[in-house]
Amino acid sequence: MGANRNRMVFALALLFAAASGAPLHGKPVEVNVSGFGLLKNREMRQSLRLLLGDGTARETVDASFIEDAALVLNSELVEQGFFAARVAAVWTDQDGCENRAEIDAELSRPLPRPLTATRLRLEAMPGRRAVVSDVRIGGLTAMSENAAKAFFLPRSGWFTPASVRAWSAERAKRGAAQLREALRARGYAEARVEITDTKIDRDTGDVNLAVGVEPGPLWRVRGWRADISGGDGVPDAKPRGIVGAIWTRGWAQDQAQAIRSLYYEKGYADARISVVAEPASAEADGERPVTAVARIATGAPAVIGAVRSEGADRTRPGVIESRLRLMPGAPYDPQAIDAARLRLARLGVFRRVEAAGEPGDASGTRDVVFRVTEEPDWQAAWTLGWGSYEQLRGGLELGRTNLWGLAHRDRVELGQSMKASRGEYRYTVPTLFDDTVEGSARVFGLRREEPSFIRLEYGAGVEASREVPWIEARGTAGLSYEVLRADDVELGVADDEATETAVSALTLGLTRDRRDNPIRPRSGQRWTIRTETALPELGSEVRYERVEAAWSWHRPLVGEDRWIHLGVSHGLVADGGDRVPVNKLFFPGGESSIRGYLEGEAAPRDAGGRFVGARSVWLANLEFEQVVTGRWTTILFSDTSGASVDIGDWPGSEVLSSAGCGLRYQSPIGPIRLEYGWNLNRRELDPPGTLHFSIGFPF
After folding, report:
1. Hey, is 328 helix, strand or coil?
2. pTM, whole model, 2 decimals?
């Protein structure tokens, strides 16, 4: 009886699974996509799984599934500009027979029903691509015509592929909407943009667009008013610079944020502020005066109740409390709370830091709760790179976080290339004297084959760093002890140069970085200066002063596909009447220096042609970069370097120049560079030029 009941339950389960379309224990239906290219085919298969649910997990599919899948592919083809695209569905039925049908974007010919397929192949048949070839814009006065055309006819360098200029109705609508928003961002709040005419040559695929623009009047703020509910007025004073400003949505949001900040400082954490415009009639000069109205709902003020943290299992409470600095009874200011959250995050031992407010025990109070997720105890990472001189290089980084529960960190870095071996251990204390000063200690070692000697360096040092807010820079100060050796020297070494010595030095540094992207800079600048002073009073065997300074500047030129880059650097070693270690001299040349030479081979030469380390060196790099297509860019560059063996010939008694060109691929880890530099005034033993292959921006 029990066995029969079990068999009945199992049979009912099978019937239910079949009726519901759930997969059985057989092989799922095979669904393939072709016609988009190798990578795109895979992407479209994944899209079908996401968009059509578990249909691809069934043993069979029906006509509706095939039509839905074909429509998904057709939509992608139309978006790419293929205006007459079709998809061929090839399926195998349960009898093993192969069938074929073409499905267009309008589904003008539905598939026969009933239909059951055990295998399905969808073949994309794109046909001719529609490409925007010309755009005519009428009524445009608020921006240049080229800037407006870029919304419909984008450029991607010298060779803009057809996929970038592809036309579809949706793409054209998006371009019109983007142009309209661009005009409104300039103060033309009533701007209207529409596609007035579209002509498609179905034989060539060329598309001509006509775009009509009605910018309307420019909105200018002529008055200010605050409508307040629940408070006594705007704290302190109204925001400045309102009257006479051009009204835009972004400007209104900035004003609302400025007013919100004033209320937050007083504890009005629930203040709701919006700034809206009350426009008047347009004037004869083409402007429309508006009154900026701040609509303010203050809510009730609150003060801080208790302050606590959650999730910090390994971190000592005192470490967290020292970073928060929030006092019970102070105004509940969301800005101050977020600043405390950032201070906590900068400890570097939390993966996530969140701040939340909860009702306090007393009326009008709110508790502040910081919820943190701690980083793992151990972290590891591999590094890989390539340079023209060191060639293939790799490394391993191992780090520990939150040592002793004090947010201390340590890290081991090991690196190996075809020319160098290096290692470093660093121990970091995030709050040395207070939470603005970070301290670290390190031991290090380096062995590197230079062009004319083998560099050996090992030692230890301590360093403190902090932000210098009045110049928006970061300063460092340190003390180091290192043993320096130069083996197998083939240089023209002077009597006042040491090939083996111990150095104790005081180091000072200052860096200010305002580039938009440190890996691929397109705008902004960066400057840095570093001094190293070796003193016998500190235990050094030699006395010298070494100074290095560098500045780089980046700026886009006309359009968004070309840039200019400028880099200037200078290094100087003064011996103070003592010997200077060979390891501390300058040897210009290489992929990030003067690119007509290999690493170190732009250094001065003695009468016998041997390289000599320079006491003074300066370098100027100028680049013009232009997008070719997509992520590919080409560059023209000029590098000039001056060097002198004698400090009395400062800044440089010998000047070398190179010029060249290159190709770059903008990868996520930095530009992959292939560059050739020609030497314009080469010396007798210098090469005509040098080819470099490397990764990373040169300066």
Report:
1. coil
2. 0.78
**Which tens digits make up the pLDDT trace of 659-678?**
999 999 999 889 999 999 99
pLDDT tens for 598-641 read 999 999 998 888 999 999 999 999 999 999 888 899 999 999 99
Phi then psi for residue 149, to 5 deg, are -65, -30
What mean pLDDT is predicted for residues 440-445? 98
CATH annotation of 218-297? 3.10.20
HEC sequence for 171-218: HHHHHHHHHHHHHHCCCCCCCEEEEEEEEECCCCCEEEEEEEEECCCE
- The residue type found at 577 is G
Q: Tell me the two tokens of residue 534.
A: 């070796």
Residue 29 to residue 47: CA distance in whole angstroms: 16
Residue 234 pLDDT class (50, 70, 90 cuts): low
DSSP β-bridge partners for residue 373: 352
Euclidean distance between CA atoms 547 and 600, whole angstroms = 19
Q: Alpha-carbon distance 446 to 422, whole Å?
A: 4
Q: How many CB atoms lie within 10 A of CB 268?
A: 26
Q: What pLDDT, on a 0 to 100 scale, did the predictor assign at position 10?
A: 37
Specify the pLDDT at position 24. Answer: 42
Amino acid at site 48 = L
| Section 103-125 average pLDDT | 90
Identify the CATH number of the domain defined by range 15-125: 3.10.20
Instruction: Check if the beta carbon of residue 167 is closer than 8 Å to that of residue 207.
Output: yes
Give the number of other CB atoms < 10 A from CB of residue 32.
12
Tell me which residue has tokens 């997008």.
627
- CATH 2.40.160.50 correct for 450-695: yes
Count of Cβ atoms closer than 10 Å to residue 583 Cβ:
24
Q: Give the CATH number of domain 308-374.
A: 3.10.20.310
* 468 to 341, 429, 491: CA distances (angstroms): 21, 19, 41
Which part of the chain has CATH 3.10.20.310? 131-214, 308-374
Residue type, 325: R
Distance CA 615, CA 637 (A): 26
What CATH number labels 131-214? 3.10.20.310
pLDDT for 21 beyond 80: no
d(C-alpha 85, C-alpha 547), whole Å: 65
* Residue 616 to residue 650: CA distance in whole angstroms: 6
The single-letter DSSP state of residue 331 is: B
- Residue range(s) of every CATH 2.40.160.50 domain in the chain: 450-695
Task: Count CB atoms within 10 A of the CB of residue 165.
Answer: 20
Q: How confident is the model at residue 3 (pLDDT cuts 50, 70, 90)?
A: very low
